[in-house]
Structures are given as structure tokens and as C-alpha cells.
Amino acid sequence: MEPDLNDVFTLVLRRNPGEGEFHQAVREVFDSLGPVLRKNPEYTDAAVLERICEPERQIIFRVPWVDDNSKVQINRGFRVEYNSALGPYKGGLRFHPSVNLGIIKFLGFEQVFKNSLTGMPVGGGKGGADFDPRGRSDGEVMRFCQSFMTELYRHLGEYTDVPAGDIGVGGREIGYLFGQYKRITNRYESGVLTGKGLTWGGSLVRTEATGFGTVLFANEMMKRHGESFDGRRVSVSGSGNVAIYAIEKAQELGANVISFSDSSGYVVDEDGVDVALLRQIKEVERGRVADYVARRQNARVITDSSIWEVPVDIALPCATQNELGQDDAVRLVKNGVRVVAEGANMPATPDAVQVLQEADVLFGPGKAANAGGVATSALEMQQNASRDSWTFEHTEERLATIMRSIHDRCAETAEEYGQPHNYVLGANIAGFTKVAGAVLALGVV
Ligand code: NAP
Q1: Ligand 1 mean position, distance from CA 206 (Å)
Q2: What is the pLDDT of residues 207-221, one digit of tens each?
Q3: CA 20 to 30 Å from 122, out of 57, 82, 186, 301?
Q4: Atom 43 of ligand 1 has which residue's CA nearest to it?
């Protein structure tokens, strides 16, 4: 790392002790920025990096609620309003027991550059709580969401901060959150949350957007290299919102998706994943991957190894951070993988990315490949602002155009900086320069 970058990175380490994922996310971006700082010394003179690494606001709050046994439960809620140089803070809420400030900061930091890459007028933020919705009744989830919003609402607004979903936060949770916001404020401000239901301000394609977008991004990378999804074997980790729609779009493009997972194990279904059955189990019954195997004759579930052991042409990690390590990358390469695109945020560890890039695997980093979700959230905000609702076809076409332009921006930037095909470099530099320019223009604020 260049000395100027190293000084700022040392500061980040000192100011944010013990926040490993946050350090990892900052380092990954800094590793790309040397040539940008040499070309633009004004960024260093004006401390742009220091400003971008320090969130504008970090909110931590208690979330008290009562469970079905009348027992008082206490969780911790977070919202990190990271950077608003390009627009209101925008980014999801994650409900998962692993959530802490460092995780939310890593996600918020990533979000700033991702949102910049979409070309939409949105800044970056992220939030959540260490609440585990799994195994909780609808009533418990509702009471938790209401308590969470009772504190968070004062920080939100169409022009201030607009949350959406992430792990553990889907349509059900967004509904309870929006209901409580509306009740407290007495205002039907649709533009304050995205991922809403279709009958109360939501956008068609938002549910599908992250998974669809990841596959569209991978498809663009492949097209540029004369390849396609058609007839390819694909593994998708996770079986939540991103994974399900990545599977659906990959199948639509002719791929044979044979594997998916959750935190209890992974499934191999050589007949091709039955996505309707998977949706029924995950979205309706809220079941586990074993429930899928029980209803599919040739599928099997494996609980003592990694999904990345399955030989495939294309791997789409769509579960969580650091789920694809160096050994997994080595195995994927040995088995002939051609493309890896990150549907999740930072699912591949830095040493895994290095293995993949050194083996000339086409690698699409999350901040570019999974930007379709937030881009479609911005389309939902546009529809809310104009009291309009677009058709599925029109919205999907907008998503496809956005993913194509993110891909092209990353590819052209990588080429401009002398490393064609390095999408990590391209995404980091293209995302950073737009934010840095706005930070400079807005003065010391
Ligand atoms: P989700 O609907 O809650 O699904 C998450 C899936 O990942 C579940 O199948 C879950 O299994 C699995 N998972 C979580 N932690 C795991 C672990 N430690 N090991 C193995 N599997 C694990 O969440 P999502 O919205 O699909 O988000 C998935 C990823 O995409 C996250 O990194 C998120 O930040 C990123 N992302 C989401 C969006 C969006 O629009 N939703 C946009 C951009 C990026 P269990 O149920 O067993 O935990």
C-alpha cells in the first residue's frame, strides 16, 4: 500500500479497534487507489480519504420488546449514516445475531461505492440489529420491528435516510417497519423505505433485483469474453432473497443450477434446482434446506463440507461475508470454475480473490455485481416521488441497462488504469472517484 494510504489505514485501525470486517473492506478499496491518488493529489491535500473513512453519523440504540412468553428481550440497534455526498443515505437493514457496529460499518462503507457505481443520486448507509428472526413468531417479529422503528424513525426521511432490507429483513419486516413509521409520524411517506409490498408503494422487480442483477452482471462479463450461461453448471450459496432470484435468472439464461445452501448445509440437485419448490420452502414455510431434499428424489443434503467443493463453471456466493475462503477458491479453480460473481457483500476473502484472479477467473466484486438491488430501490423512490408505478418489463429493462452500464464503467476504468479484466480495481476506482469529486465540491462539512 502507498505511504499516504497506509497513514490513513493506520488511522482507521486505531480509531476502529476490533472491527475486522470493516478493516478488511477499507483495505480492499485502498489496495486499488494508489494510481488515483498519484493522478489527483488534491484528494490527499483535502483529506478526502480520511473523510470518506469516517461515517458522518453512527447511531446505536436499545430495542426493548416482549416475546410470546411475556419475557422482556433487549436487542441492540444500529444505523450508520455513512456518506451523503451523492444523495440521502441509502442501504439495507440486517437482522442477524452476528450484527455489531463493525459489520454495519463494513456494509455501509461498501454501500457508498456501490451506490456511486449505480449512477443514481444516493449516498450510503447501513443498519440493523443483533435480533434473530429465525424461529420467532410473526407477532414477535412485528413487536421487534415496531420497537426498532420507534427509535429509528427520527433519523429517517425521503431526503435524509432511506433504509431497505438485507439479511433477515424481507417484505414482512419492511411492512411492520413502514406501518410503525406511518403511525408515529401520521404521514404516508412512501419514499422513506424501499422493498415495500406492491399494493402499498413497492416497485415491481425490487424483490428479484439483487439476484437478477448479479446474474446480469456475470452475463456481461462473460459476453465480453465470448462466453454465456447457456448449458453451464452453476452453484449459488444461500437460499434467501438474493440466492433465489439469482437461481431463477441463471436458469432463464439456460444454466443448470445444481446447488444452493443455508447455514445448516448445502444441497446438490443434479436434476436442476426446482426454484418454485425452494421459494415455497424458504419464502412461505420458512423451512430449512433439508425440507427441499425430503421432496426431491435425487437431491441430497451435505452438512460436513463446503458448497464450493461441487465442480461448477460458475459460482455465485449469495449468502454472507467471508463465506468463500482461500481453500474454497483453490478447489473451485482446480475444478475448472470460469466465473465468480458476488451476490452477497464481501463473500470472498482477500486471499480467495487473489487465487481466482491469478487463475484468470472472471471475478465480479459485490459492490458492482450486487448493485442491482439498491439501483432498483432508487427506481422505487422515483416511482414514489412521481406517484407512478411502472410495469415489470419496463423496470426490468431499466435494471438491465443499469447493470450493463455498471459493468462497462468497471471494465473501462480497469482498462484505463492498465489492468483490463480487473473488475475489483475498476469498481473501486470508478466508485471512489465519483464520491471523492462530490466530497471535494461540497467543502469541509
Ligand atoms: P436473506 O434473504 O436473509 O438470506 C440469507 C441467506 O444466506 C440464507 O439462506 C441464510 O441461511 C444464508 N446465510 C446467512 N449467514 C450464513 C452463514 N454464516 N453461513 C451460511 N449461510 C448463511 O438475505 P439476502 O437479502 O439474500 O442477503 C444475502 C447477502 O446479499 C448478504 O451479504 C447481503 O448483504 C447481500 N445483499 C443483499 C441485498 C438485498 O437486496 N437483499 C442487496 C445487496 C447485497 P440461514 O437462513 O440458515 O441463516
Answers
A1: 16
A2: 999 999 999 999 999
A3: 186
A4: 370
Provide CB contacts within 8 A for 338, sequence distance 6+.
Answer: 222, 227, 232, 313, 314, 361, 362
Using alpha carbons only, give the angle 68, 72, 73 rounded to the nearest 5 degrees: 90
Sign of CA dihedral 275, 281, 287, 290: negative
CA of 300 to the centre of ligand 1 (A): 22
Closest CA to 144 of 122, 167, 118, 172: 172
The minimum-distance atom of ligand 1 relative to the CA of 170 is 2
**Stretches in the chain below the pLDDT threshold 70:** none
Q: With a 6 A CB cut-off, is 75 part of the ligand 1 pocket?
A: no
Close Cβ partners of 79 (under 8 Å, ≥ 6 residues apart):
58, 59, 104, 125, 126, 127, 152, 155, 161, 163
DSSP string for residues in 317-351: E-S-TT-B-HHHHHHHHHTT--EEE-SSSS-B-HH
Distance from Cα 95 to the centre of ligand 1, integer Å? 10
In three-state secondary structure terms, 189 is coil
Cell of 73: 428481550
Ligand 1 centre distance from Cα of residue 134 (Å):
13
- Among protein residues, the one with the nearest Cα to ligand 1's atom 3 is 167
* Active-site annotation, residues: 126
Q: Strand runs (DSSP E) across 205-335, as ranges? A: 233-237, 256-262, 265-268, 300-302, 314-317
**Total length of the chain:** 445
- Please, which residues have CB within 8 angstroms of residue 25's CB and are 6 or more apart in sequence? 106, 109, 110, 346
CA distances from 253 to 161, 198, 228, 339 (A): 36, 26, 8, 15
Ligand 1: residue of 134, 279, 320, 374 to mutate (most ligand atoms within 8 A of CB) is 320
Using a 6 Å cutoff on CB, does residue 263 contact ligand 1? yes
- For the Cβ of 303 lying below 6 angstroms from any atom of ligand 1, the answer is no
Helix, coil or strand: residue 233: strand
Give the per-residue pLDDT at 229: 98
Rounded CA separation 169/164 (Å): 8
Nearest Cα residue to atom 28 of ligand 1: 319
Spatial distance between the Cα atoms of 99 and 427, rounded to a whole number of angstroms: 26
Predicted local distance difference test score (pLDDT) of residue 2: 86
Q: Distance, CA 344 to ligand 1 centroid (Å)?
A: 7
